Amino acid sequence: MSKPHDAYASASRMAPKDPREFEATILTRAAGQLQRIRDNWEAETASALYDALTYNRRIWTVFAASAAEKEHPLPREIKQNIANLAVFIFKRTSEIEATREPEPKLLDTLIMINREIAAGLYTRA
C-alpha cells in the first residue's frame, strides 16, 4: 500500500463510521484550507499555499488509487469520473505551483470541486 493510502486508512479508522461522511469531511477541510489562503492571499506564505495544495493532492491521489482498484464497488463510470477529476486537480495544482506569482483565483476551481463533491457525499451519507 502507498503512504497516502496508509494515511487515509489510518485516519478513516478514527473517522465517522460512514466512509462517505469521512471523505466529505476531508474534502471540506481541504476546501477550507484553500479558501482561507485565497481570502488572506496577501498575508499568506508560499509555504502555506504549498501545504494546502499538497494536502489536497494527497486526498485526490488516494481517491484515484482507490477508484482504480478492480475490487472497488463503484460503477465503472463513476470510477472514471473520479480519475478524470483527479487528473484535472493534479494538472491545476502543478500549474499553480509552477507559476512564479500565482493569483488567488487559481484556487477557485479546486475549492469548488472539493465542496461540490463533499456536498454530494454528505447527501448520500
Q: Could you list some keywords that capture this structure?
A:
125 residues, mainly alpha, 5 helices, 76% helix
How would you explain this protein's 3D organization?
- The protein has 125 residues and is mainly α.
- It is 76% helix and 0% strand.
- It contains five helices and no strands.
- The chain has helices at 3-13, 19-39, 46-68, 76-98, 108-124.
- Helix 2 runs antiparallel to helix 3 (46-68), helix 2 runs antiparallel to helix 5 and helix 3 packs antiparallel against helix 4.
- The radius of gyration is 15 Å and the shape is globular.
- The mean pLDDT is 88.
Order of helices and strands: HHHHH
N- and C-termini, Cα separation: 27 Å
Low-confidence stretches: none
The count of helical stretches stands at 5
Helix content: over 70%
Could you describe the largest sheet, including whether it forms a barrel?
A: none
